[in-house]
Structure formats: C-alpha cells, structure tokens
Design brief:
8 helices
Length: 158
C-alpha cells in the first residue's frame, strides 16, 4: 500500500464518517471523543484504506485542537535563568560573580535590566548550557522583522 491510502470503498468510508462524525474540535469533550475513536482505530491490526484515511483525519483534528489549547509559550531568558537557579538551589547572591554587583543581579532578576552579552557568556559557563538559551527569540524575531521592513523600504518595495 502507498504512503497515502486511497479510498477504495466509498460506502465503507461514509459509514465510518457517520459513526465517528469528525469535525473541527472546539471542546474538551469533543477532543476526548475523537481521541477515543482514534485510539480504537489505532488498536486495529489490519486497517482498511478507509480506516487509514479516517485515522489521518482524526489525527489532524486532534493536533489542531491541542496546538491551540495546550501549546506553551516560549520561555524568556529570565524564565530560564530562574529555572536554572531553582534547579541548582541558587539565590541571587550566588550570582554576583556573574553580574558583578548585587544591584545589577537584582535588576536583571527583577526584569528591570536585560542580560548583557558578558552576563550570558558567564551564565552559559556557570550552568554548562548553550548561550543561545539566554537570547530572547521573540526579541530577535522582532528585530529581524524590523530589519526586513527597513530593507524593503530601502529597496522601494515597502
């Protein structure tokens, strides 16, 4: 059978659709119902092409619902730093060597000051992690977007 199972029996597929009634999922109850139907199909050893197609449809519907309702926001550099501190049993005073002074450590940890490149280098060495963890992807995306707009304006496109 090919990677995409072609529907061979339209009547069987129509009966499966009538039984499961798949549609865009809006509630937890609908998600649970579709998940149960998907699990039932996945438990079958020899699925028909029609069952494969329904499995594919249910998977897409469930993934769409869960991406909208269960996705996590990306962690900020400060969130990551706080997590690393907590995981290692560290307090603000333990990072004065990274930040230079207690007041800078306080400002960074309270969100009043951004991490400097020197801080990022020292933190990545201290925690033995990639320095990329401490670069804010959202801020970088905003800068990249602004740079793209500037390039478009300079080229006369925007």
């Amino acid at each position: 059978m090919s990677a995409v199972a072609e529907i061979q029996n339209e009547r069987e597929y129509a009966e499966l659709l009538a039984e499961v009634l798949p549609h865009v999922i809006h509630t937890e109850e609908e998600n649970a119902r579709c998940t149960a139907a998907l699990e039932k199909l996945l438990a079958k050893r020899n699925r028909t092409p029609e069952e494969y197609r329904l499995t594919e449809l249910l998977t897409l519907l469930i993934e769409d619902f869960e991406a909208k309702h269960y996705s996590l926001q990306p962690a900020t550099p400060l969130d990551i730093l706080r997590h690393l501190m907590e995981s290692n049993g560290l307090r603000q005073v333990d990072l004065i060597g990274v930040f230079g002074t207690a007041s800078i450590a306080s400002e960074v940890l309270s969100g009043k000051r951004a991490l400097a490149k020197s801080h990022i280098e020292k933190l990545s060495q201290r925690f033995n992690v990639s320095s990329e963890l401490f670069f804010d992807g959202r801020a970088q995306a905003k800068v990249a977007s602004q740079n793209k707009i500037s390039v478009l304006k300079c080229s006369g496109v925007a």
